[in-house]
Amino acid sequence: MILGLLLVFLAAFAGIFGFFLQQGIRTNQQRLEERSAAAAQVVANNAFWIDQLAQQTLRRVDAAIGPQMRDQTRIDLVLEGLPAQAELYVVDQAGGTLFSSVDGADNVSIRDRDYFTQVRDGAPFAMSSLIVSRLTTEPIFVFSKRIERDGRFAGAAMLSFPVDVVRDFWAMLDFEDASTISLVRTDGMLIARFPPTEGPVDLSDLPLFQEYLPETPVGTYTSEASPLDGVARVVSYRLVEGTPIVALASISSQQTWNTFRNGIFAVFLIVSPIVLGLVAGSIWIVRLLYRDAAWGKALEQAIDANNLLFREIHHRVKNNLQSVQSLVALQEMPDGAKRDLRSRLAAMAAMHTHIYEFDSFDDIDAHDYVPSVVNEVVAAYGANLEVVYDIEHLRVDRDHATPLALLLSELVTNSIKYAFQDRAPGKIHVSIKAAGPGRADLVVSDNGVGLSTDGTTPGMGTRLLKGVVAQMSGTYTVTSDDGARFSANVALETSGHTAGI
Q1: CA 169, 141, 128 angle in degrees (round to 5)?
Q2: Which end of the chain lies in a sparser environment, N or C, as judged by fewer CB atoms within 10 Å?
Q3: Who contacts 60 (Cβ-Cβ below 8 Å, separation ≥6)?
């Protein structure tokens, strides 16, 4: 009986210990994956902003160099806003240097570089993998933009970054020495890595590019041995939206598992007596659960606090806009100009109201957003008319919410002011339909008096209307068919600008 009871106790101990051991392994693996996934998100966000900085800078350079590509004064203005690590180059169609922020660029050739040949052959933008600078002999990666004059290839603008720029990303993640972060092109060519490599690396044969990335743009997997240094890591990857960049965060698992094994050994020594072992194991698990719960509660409180701050900010902006409306109402100016200002302010105030009422701090649903803007404009004029909506559920990002509100305000204002002067209460029809990734077809029409005899409607040809459509990378037409009809194809998201090129 004593032996039997001992065997039973040993079996119970082994079962419970084995259960907790399995749970511990799963928990550690899950934490490694969660930590690497969060780090990959941080790296992807920073990579996105580098890509956006490069594209915006290169666009500014294209505009600044002038028709003859020689305007040094305006290029100097562009240079004032560049990060200290970045270097700018402008070359002609043959690859000859026209301008460089680094001395000696005339002594090297970039004609064979892929970032030059791609834009030369028609690509609007290109991005290199990790390369060694022929000018400074330092490892860099380069963004380039095609420059056209009179519809023909005239040269390229290029912005280079040292690969060491990712060191700052790595530092903010509080990684162990054996953990790494990387930026890789979608074709498998390494762009930058920290800790750095000795030179360019082709990773296209790895499972990441052969199996995982083709299935899903975001994921996590375990690498038993890195092809660069042989270290086992948990790897999270994330395709940076709208770019050819894959962000990687790789956490070394060896140190974590060594720590875990040492903990198991220590627990085993401490719990040699079965009862003490069971008690110690239970306390350990309870403490882990309490700690996880505390972390989860703290994170939830932080999220709630952030949402509250965002709501408060947008609420105050809306209140400030309403205060401006009140000040406008007190100013001595023509009634028409006063109503125009109030309608535009009402449209922008409606945007902020929509954001904090629906907690839409990142993206807005056009189906709910557009009516709230249009209704504010109609109310600002006190117009007696019917508005018919035909709006799909489309995303409007924060960079396009205000331009869309101003565009709708201008169009509806024109209809109210000019379409129904001598008619019974009229009707305005607002339609938004998807037209490709990040883009939409916008139609605003009325059953009013139509266009004037010279082919325009008062207010339709204003600088504001053209400027807002251009800001949304769009085109538009105005026709007369039983009333005025405005049709436009515009971007509702940042990705829509690339789709519209």
Answers
A1: 125
A2: N
A3: 78
Q: pTM of the full predicted structure?
A: 0.50
Query: What SS3 state is found at 191?
Result: strand
pLDDT exceeds cutoff 60 at 323: no
Question: With the CA atoms of 344, 346, 347 and 349 taken in that order, what torsion angle do they form, in degrees rounded to the nearest 10?
Answer: 120
Cβ neighbours for 390, distance < 8 A, ≥ 6 positions apart: 429, 430, 431, 432, 433
Residue type, 237: Y
Please give the DSSP secondary-structure letter assigned to residue 82. Answer: S
Helix (H) or strand (E) holding 160: strand 152-162
Considering the domain delimited by 34-270, tell me its CATH architecture.
Answer: 2-Layer Sandwich (3.30)
Architecture category of domain 305-499 in CATH: 2-Layer Sandwich (3.30)
Q: With pLDDT > 70 as the criterion, what percentage of the chain qualifies?
A: 72
Listed in sequence order, the residues at least 6 apart from 374 whose beta carbon sits closer than 8 Å to its beta carbon are 387, 389, 408, 412, 428, 430
Contacts of 151 (CB under 8 A, 6+ apart): none
CA distances from 120 to 140, 185, 276, 357 (A): 21, 20, 74, 49
